[in-house]
Amino acid sequence: MTAYDRRDLGLLLLRLGTGGVLAAHGTQKLFGWFGGHGIEGTGQFMESVGYAPGKASATAAGLAETGGGTLLALGLATPAAGAAAAGAMAGAAAVHTPNGFFNQSGGYEYAATLGLTAAGLAVTGPGRISLDHVLGHAVNRGWMIPAAFAAAAAGTALVVGARAKRLRQAKEGEQDPLFDEDYME
């Protein structure tokens, strides 16, 4: 079959939309584009939410989002691209989880949606309207899917785990007030 079918067009739309959004977010972190804060500002933010060192964390997140998003949009190295983007979004979701699910309350809804879509594309594949297809799927082999997810999961677990440990250690020694000040009045 030489004509593109609905699946190919649907995958193209998903890749362009998800990849474009991820790449834009990454360039905010890396270059300060689209109203972002660049490495300096993002690094300070990353440090404030427990990702240390901040600049290295901002660079890693920015590269995973920009690189993963761009590759997803192009349909190139789709397993690695989707896994990298999903890992970055898992790290973002960890920051937003205390706020609940919904984005309007600062929750992890948005990060989860981007991450799950990127992961789904990595598993499903890019479709025939992609650079992977043009290149004969040289960097989109079946074995690459579990390998990419294993590597991304291991890296994400280490980074998010280290963040959780830092946050626990920072909280040690702090004591909650014994009485609510409003109650004392």
TrEMBL record:
PANTHER family in the record: INNER MEMBRANE PROTEIN YPHA-RELATED (PTHR33452:SF1), OXIDOREDUCTASE CATD-RELATED (PTHR33452)
TM ranges: 71-95, 143-162
Protein name as it appears in the record: DoxX family membrane protein
Family note: Belongs to the DoxX family.
Protein localization: Cell membrane
Topology in membrane: Multi-pass membrane protein
Keywords, in A-Z order: Cell membrane, Membrane, Transmembrane, Transmembrane helix
Pfam families linked: DoxX
Coiled coil: none
Keyword Transmembrane: yes
Primary location group: membrane
Provenance organism: Streptomyces venetus
